[in-house]
UniProtKB/TrEMBL annotation:
Boundaries of every VWFA domain copy: 1-86, 128-241
Name of the protein described by the UniProt record: VWFA domain-containing protein
Species, as recorded: Paenibacillus thailandensis
């Protein structure tokens, strides 16, 4: 299961639309969640609308939060999206097997078994989360909260039974460039998180769309390199419904 978790506080202003980029991610089997970090109680009407549109196009969730709520929100969205992804995959397989994709249409005993399987798969399926951090100048006061959120998310992922990996990107990559930069590659280790933030330039434009596209390319390249298949495909094969 693959996710991009975008943490931002403003509108994109360079390159391809982030809504279009999020739709590309969904087409690649990557869910896009978006957390809008409030600045003095507001991210602006345009910013809030964009955050919602990105998440909807990416098949994920969006939330507007203050820095105190950031860590809890990041964990909640990650876990809830996992369960939604599993449930959709299970319903797809039920439709293929039974001709009916509705869990509610099953007899009560079978329905309970499917719900148990969904819970189990949510904890055991491999999960990859790519964090994409807006490093525009206005995010500077919020970086400590972002760092704490990353640490708490990693601890939460480590508590899962299944393999969990996290990688971290920030954007823009430089004062004059549109690209994003990978700060930490796939890891399940907290080492190195603190070293990211003092180095961030915290200036420049907000190329949210190009940054999303680069993370999608990273997922695609890694998938080809490792020869991974979509692990949500056929996830019910070991269970009898």
């Amino acid at each position: 299961m693959k996710q991009i978790l975008l943490i931002t506080d403003g509108c994109s202003n360079v390159g391809v639309s982030p809504v279009v980029a999020a739709a590309h991610a969904k087409g690649e089997g990557i869910v896009v969640n978006v957390v809008g970090v409030l600045d003095y109680g507001d991210v602006g009407e345009l910013g809030a609308a964009e955050i919602d549109e990105i998440a909807r196009a990416g098949g994920g969730m969006s939330r507007l939060v203050n820095t105190r709520q950031l860590s809890q929100t990041v964990q909640m969205m990650t876990r809830k999206t996992v369960m939604q992804t599993v449930q959709l995959a299970v319903q797809k397989e039920l439709k293929q097997v039974l001709g009916n994709g509705s869990i509610e249409a099953l007899p009560p005993d079978k329905r309970g078994e499917v719900v148990r399987v969904i819970d189990e798969l949510g904890e055991t399926q491999k999960l990859q989360v790519a964090l994409l951090i807006d490093a525009s100048a206005s995010m500077k006061p919020k970086l400590q909260a972002v760092e704490e959120a990353i640490r708490d998310l990693m601890l939460s992922l480590q508590a899962r039974q299944g393999e969990s990996e996290l990688c971290v990107f920030h954007f823009p990559g430089s004062r004059y460039g549109d690209e994003c930069v990978m700060d930490i590659g796939w890891t399940s280790d907290l080492t190195g998180v603190s070293a990211i933030f003092p180095k961030l330039p915290m200036s420049g434009t907000t190329p949210t769309g190009p940054a999303l596209m680069q993370v999608i390319d990273f997922y695609r390249t890694e998938s080809y390199r490792k020869g991974n298949r979509d692990e949500t495909d056929g996830m019910m094969s070991d269970y009898v419904v």
